[in-house]
Design goal:
Number of strands: 5
Shape: globular
Distance between the termini: 59 Å
Strand order of the largest sheet: 2-3-1-4-5
Radius of gyration: 23 Å
Number of helices: 12
Structural class: alpha/beta
């Protein structure tokens, strides 16, 4: 009641009612603004080519695409009830403090880069897409897809110690979260296969989405420093270190696609190829279908 009255008074007269000696606890929405404006987030699964997409974006003179940062795991802990009471008086809680931390860390990277836009990728962020929008209501999304059967094959080669069941479960966990994010939020969808087949066309589409002019230098990412390629924060294999976009391995044939992955393959438009069918013919059939 009091807040509504004060809001009406402020609009009409520029004044509000306050008891003498009592500090107002109301915080205008402007007090929760973020340092970052319209940050872009690449939502993807593991082993989907996100490191390649990151370095292509980071090769643009106006786009900062830093090392991946798993926002879900960057948390704030309020240790006791007294701190909680204090935060209540500040109209804050641990979640809002986490958002301040997320915003500060990523904005720090952007400022140090000297560029104008931030594009952040980290596979685990696919699980916190809703929280990203809550933190940055103006956030933009790039959805990166790859043939789920190829993802499973790539992950198995990287982690042969995992059972086939665990490997498939991990692919489905990330893949289903990505599909849910695509249903809930708008954004640009790109495919790893398209990036490797025609990086010029894909990077041009990315630039249109970001509102920046396309630069041919994006295709020569090896000319630029993108941070170390380290295990645990993206791809680190020789292929990405080569500095040039390379074609992927052929998609797994139909008989090698795990049955559990077929629904996800179909949802993303990947038809398992039959043995002996040329890859180019499959791609043409997919485009026409």
């Amino acid at each position: 009641m009091k807040r509504a009255l004060n809001s009406a008074l402020a609009r009409a007269t520029g004044y509000e009612l306050r008891r003498i000696g009592v500090r107002t606890r109301y915080r205008a929405p402007e007090s929760r603004t973020r340092l970052l404006t319209a940050p872009t987030f690449v939502l993807c699964t593991v082993r989907s080519g996100s490191t390649l997409l990151r370095v292509l974006l980071d090769s643009h003179s106006q786009v900062c695409a830093p090392q991946e940062l798993n926002l879900r795991d960057l948390t704030v802990a309020v240790r006791d009830e007294y701190a909680e009471k204090s935060l209540e008086e500040f109209s804050l809680d641990s979640k809002q403090l986490e958002y301040v931390l997320w915003d500060w860390v990523l904005n720090r990277e952007l400022e140090e880069s000297g560029k104008q836009q931030l594009a952040s990728k980290a596979p685990r962020n696919v699980f916190v897409a809703d929280r990203i929008v809550e933190c940055w209501p103006d956030a933009r999304f790039i959805f990166l897809l790859r043939n789920p059967a190829a993802i499973a094959r790539s992950r198995h080669a990287l982690r042969p110690q995992d059972t086939e069941e665990r490997n498939i479960d991990m692919v489905l966990r990330y893949g289903n979260a990505l599909e849910e994010a695509r249903r809930r939020h708008s954004g640009l969808t790109v495919r790893y296969e398209d990036i490797t087949a025609d990086p010029r066309a894909v990077t041009q589409a990315l630039c249109r989405f970001l509102g920046v002019p396309w630069q041919a230098s994006m295709l020569e990412y090896g000319r630029f420093a993108h941070g170390r390629y380290r295990q645990g924060i993206g791809d680190w294999k020789e292929k990405i270190k080569s500095g040039r976009v390379q074609p992927p391995e052929p998609s797994p044939p139909a008989e090698e696609v795990p049955p559990a992955l077929i629904p996800l393959c179909e949802a993303w438009g990947y038809r398992p190829p039959r043995a002996g069918t040329p890859e180019s013919a499959l791609e043409k059939a997919w485009q026409e279908g």
